[in-house]
Amino acid sequence: MFDKLFQAQQKAEEVKKRLDSISVLGEAEGGKVRVVASANKEIKEVKIDNAFLDQLQDKEELEELLAVAINKALQQAENVSQSEMQAVSQDLLGGVGGLGNLFAGKK
Q1: Which of 1, 27, 34, 39 is the most exposed place for a label (fewest CB within 10 A)?
Q2: For residues 54 and 37, what is the distance between their CA atoms, to the nearest angstrom?
Q3: What is the CB neighbour count within 10 angstroms for residue 81?
């Protein structure tokens, strides 16, 4: 049983490393505001189109667009993370499906 727990821990570490290497993108205003994050929900990069920034007259508009782009990136990261974890869970559950029989023979 401890082997299964150790395997689960190893798989979780592998997933974390894989999620660190996956980039997701959130955009606002047709790509003029872009945010890149890792699938582990770490913001890696924020880009604002220079021409758009030059014509922008309202700081609050930029702040709102940044929030939109960040939230989109984080939602994409969450989706990727859930997919990866679900795949690993199914993999592990296939290997621990016999746990229900662990105590069956003991009275």
Answers
A1: 1
A2: 25
A3: 19
